Amino acid sequence: MKIKLSQELIVQSGKTIDGRRENVRIAYGCSITLQFVYNVIIHNTHVHHVVESHGGLIRDSKDHSGFRMVGDGDGFIHVVNNDYTHWKMYVIGSSTHHTISSQVNRFIAPNEPFAKKITHRIYVPESKWKNWVWRSEGDLFMNGAFFRTSGPSSSSQFTFNKKNMSETKPGTFVGRLTHFAGALSWK
């Protein structure tokens, strides 16, 4: 059985993809996405020759749909050693109180003057989000990119729990770290 996905297949927790008694191949299209899930079983399913794609459309009723964006869930977000380019509006956004630590990323803003900001608080007045803890440490900002921090100004008032943090390299290493990132081209 050959399957060519036109959009990514997003798998939630507690799911099984069972290819027993079949030769299941997901190829030459989009791939499977497993993110922040648990108790997932994928058995006898070959995934190869996948192509890069954007997030798919999500339909929540017969007359409304929107684009799938990165979700931040509830709690602590650690953004580390990434290379961000070509964004249209912003890179990191949230509509609820989350703790966000951005460390040693490279942000190269697009040329559009209205698209230089990295952070965006969605549908929330500044009187609320000004206490949210959003920090940037060692990030590399290029072409006018900027990160608007919030929360306590003194590091003694708030420190990140180091056991929740990933090991980092300096922001100048990001190009080398991400050079081969992305969809593989199988020939």
The largest sheet, given as strand count, sense and whether it forms a barrel, is: 3 strands, parallel
Structural class of the secondary elements? mainly beta
Number of helices: 2
- What's the Cα radius of gyration? 19 Å
Helix content: under 10%
Which stretches are low in confidence, meaning pLDDT under 50 for 5 or more residues running? 64-72
Strand order of the largest sheet: 1-4-7
Q: How many separate domains?
A: 2
Distance between the termini: 21 Å
How would the global form be characterised? globular
Strand content: 25-35%
Written description of the protein model:
This protein is mainly β and 187 residues long. The chain contains two helices and 17 strands. The protein folds into two domains: 2-67, no CATH class; 76-178, no CATH class. It has helices at 126-129, 174-178, and strands at 2-3, 9-11, 16-18, 24-27, 32-34, 41-43, 45-48, 57-61, 64-67, 76-80, 83-85, 92-94, 99-103, 106-108, 119-121, 134-137, 140-142. Strands 1-4-7 form a three-stranded parallel sheet, with no helix packed on it. The protein has a three-stranded parallel sheet with strand order 10-13-16, with no helix packed on it. The protein has a three-stranded parallel sheet with strand order 11-14-17. Strand 8 (57-61) and strand 9 form a beta hairpin. InterPro entries: Pec_lyase, Pectin_lyas_fold, Pectin_lyase_fold/virulence, PEL. Keywords: Lyase. GO terms for molecular function: pectate lyase activity.
